Amino acid sequence: MRKSPTGDMAYERMNTLNGFLRERFGRKMIKLMLDGGFTCPNRDGTKGTGGCLFCNESASGDFARAVSPGSISRALTDQIALFEEKWPDAGYIAYFQNHTNTYAPVEKLKSLFGAALADPRVEGLAVATRPDCLPDDVLEYLGELAKDNFIWVELGLQSSNDNIANTVNRCYPTSEYDLAMQRLCSIGIPTVTHIILGLPGESEDDMKESVRHACLSKTWGIKLHLLNVVKGSRLAADMPDYVPFSSMDEYVSLVCDIIEELPPDVVIHRLTGDAPRKILIAPEWSYRKRTIMNSINHELVRRDSFQGSRLTDINP
Q1: pLDDT in tens, 132-187
Q2: For the domain bounded by 9-303, which CATH number is listed?
Q3: Taking the model in full, what pTM does it have?
Q4: Residue 232: which pLDDT band, with cuts at 50, 70 and 90?
Q5: Nearest 5 degrees, angle CA 223-CA 85-CA 74?
Q6: Which of 1, 3, 2, 9 minimizes the C-alpha distance to 295?
Q7: Which residues contact 193 (CB under 8 A, 6 or more apart)?
Q8: Where are the domains of the chain?
């Protein structure tokens, strides 16, 4: 267990993104969320329509700012203004979040990502995408960026169980994720894997197995999302009474179990979800992000455990 220089309970028991970035950059780093106007092959008919079962129209990017290459600087300025009083010495990472941020001609990626990285206040780039949207020219471009910039790529696995993935209309097999991970690792780009906890039909063992699969695939980081049933999603229309967890305590216990089995070098980017309350249907308590995070920290203290404390050999 690490000793926090600031008394941060989460830092001491987990390898958090906040802690990792503080160690790397020497100060607080903040992600600035940008919407580059991308769509998704699971929406435009290439592979499917309507998106994944859990997505609404914003594709989980309700807090991102819509931008074009010419408006990125203003969007960054507006967001920085929200943070600079509290963290006047912070650094910033441009985060392209909404939909599939490599699902476009590489020229569009160059114009958007290049404009973000050209801003002197931006010290890194994060790109969320699907594993099946990384053609050779995009990978080559990302590899070139990574030579001179701190970047990571986020892949939405959600579940390693293909039966569950088919149920939620993911529209690609897990083998596609495995291939994308291999290719990104081969060009030295850190990758973050998104896992959704509470998908319909999924057991706790299934959820834990998805995390193990990501770790075996050499993921650099992990995002655990509490499934939110939100207005405008197909899940809300098809399963209006679905509640992924019966209580916050049940969710907190599962997350702590996962943390205890997570390799210490995996960077934890997220442990819950935070859909806007105005569109949230269930679980009704999931908007209480700070309470959930505090409960996770207190449960680890109660157990006297930490990231990797129950880790066994995950290699097959």
Answers
A1: 999 999 999 999 999 999 999 999 999 999 999 999 999 999 999 999 999 999 99
A2: 3.20.20.70
A3: 0.93
A4: confident
A5: 75
A6: 9
A7: 154, 155, 157, 177, 181, 214, 217, 219, 221, 222, 223
A8: 9-303
